[in-house]
Amino acid sequence: MTVGLLLDYQNLILPNKEKLAGFLSGINMTSFYPSFFKERSGVVIVISETDFRTLDTLPFEQKISQLNSLKVLSYAGASYNAKKHVIILGPAHGGYLKDVLEALLAYLPNTDWIWTATKGDYESYISQGFKHPFMVEKTPLGDEIPDTLALVRKNDYQTKVELEEVYDEILYTLGPQTTCTFNFRVVEGARAYLQTLTSKAGVTLNKNKTITQKEVSGGLSIESTETRNAVIFFLLGLDRKLTVYNQEEEASISPSFYNFHTHPQQAYLNHNVKLGWPSADDYSAFLSSIAENNTIFHLLAAVEGFYILSLSPYWAINLKDLDVTSKWITQNLHWREKEGASDWKVKDYLARVNEMDYKGEPIFQVQFSTWDKGEPFEVAYPRRDGNCFYSKKTWDIYSKLYDS
User: What is the pLDDT, as a whole number, of residue 244?
Assistant: First the structure.
């Protein structure tokens, strides 16, 4: 049996540096991040349970002396920043990561994040609850660590380990990508629910006591991953807490990386149309959601199937130069009235919308699927801070730690 201990650097090690010469000779403190010596910090050591019991019975001065003769099985530097609510954990020299983490759990706030960087041995970290991978050039405290994978976990007891899913996410994050591409499939249960919302659900009471079908909006979330021919696909289900019942022909946009809204059957009857493809307002709202919510794609649930709205690869890379206005979109997307498009089929609409260019480049990539197929899609989206962030949770953690 082994035990992890967190030794306070500022209050224990520094004041007794000379007395701890033997102990410190086995700790390579030059391997610690520079911020270790500026922040509230400590050295986590892993020792045998026998050594721990012996140490625990001694008075303070004898504890200091006893540290010099301990057999340290593993050690790691850890810094704590209360403002960012983060614990910066360096490499565990010698392994025993589980014991190192249990020491942090015992001595530091359980509501804060543990941040660590790794260049390999991913399964050891995932098995201890680390996830939400992203690439960094610095630690959250400003230490230079070029082109390094970072992982985080809460400083609490881990009850669920998503080994395969997080490993897939690490591979996706490490993959060389000029353009961020997100491959996904909407799971059957989510498709069935969305289809129901377009056909017969979404009915609510109005202020005048009438009952009508409304547009419904909401978000999707990652449920799991799957790999096909070495390509990682994210399986998306409904994020129920984001579902909102709106007005008859008006919908708010959910603050999600992948959001949706519906064009219900009632709207088809009101406008005497056979297909409910995205409106000009839908495209403007999607572009606004990219800026405000980092949205990767928007799903429009229609009676005939669902449309996937995303940026073209060119504009995903050059988003900072995309200054298109809602007025321009309205002028260029009202084909139903301008071109007699009421008799178009879905394929006609897709051909027309996907050739619409801005500054010489197609602006949108729109795809379609009937409800029964559930086929996978690939969409392009913007890189942020050198990362292809595919998860809102990961982005929220990153932006908080790095003030982005």
Answer: 65
Over the stretch 223-253, which tens digit does the pLDDT of each residue have?
988 888 888 899 999 988 776 654 544 556 7
* Locus of tokens 């001694």: 58
Which ranges of 131-178 does DSSP label H, i.e. alpha helix?
A: 163-174
In-domain check, residue 314:
yes
CATH code assigned at 154: 3.40.630
Phi, psi of 28 (to 5 degrees): -85, 85
- CA–CA dist 256, 392 (Å, integer): 7
**Mean pLDDT value across residues 186-200:** 89
Closest C-alpha to 331, from 358, 304, 312: 358
User: What pLDDT is attached to residue 268?
Assistant: 80
For the record, the structure tokens of 106 come out as: 């015992």
In the chain, the largest separation of any two C-alpha atoms, in whole Å, equals 91
Two tokens, residue 288 = 């606004």
Integer distance in angstroms from the first to the last C-alpha of the chain?
Answer: 43
Dihedral angle over CA of 11, 12, 13, 14, nearest 10: 40
Q: How many domains in the chain?
A: 2
Strand partners, 319: none
Q: List pLDDT tens digits, range 194-208.
A: 999 887 654 444 454
281 and 211, same domain (yes or no): yes
Comparing C-alpha atoms, which of 347, 368, 246 is closest to residue 302? Answer: 368
Phi first, then psi: what are they for 167, rounded to 5°?
-60, -40
> Cα(198)–Cα(299) distance, rounded to whole angstroms?
13
Convert 151-176 to b/e letters by CB count within 10 Å (16 or more is b): bbbebeeeeeeeeebbbbbbebbeee
237 alpha carbon, distance to own chain's centre: 15
**Neighbouring-strand partners of residue 43:** 7, 77
Q: Please list the alpha-helical segments (H only) found in 21-86.
A: 21-24, 49-56, 60-67
Q: What is the pTM of this model?
A: 0.85
Residues 325 and 191 in one domain: yes
DSSP code, position 277: P
Same domain, 234 and 186: yes
Environment class of 206 (CB within 10 Å of its CB; exposed 0-12, middle 13-18, buried 19+) = exposed
Strand partners, 211: 205
Q: Which domain, by its residues, includes 135? A: 2-173
Say how far apart CA 82 and CA 109 lie, in whole Å: 9
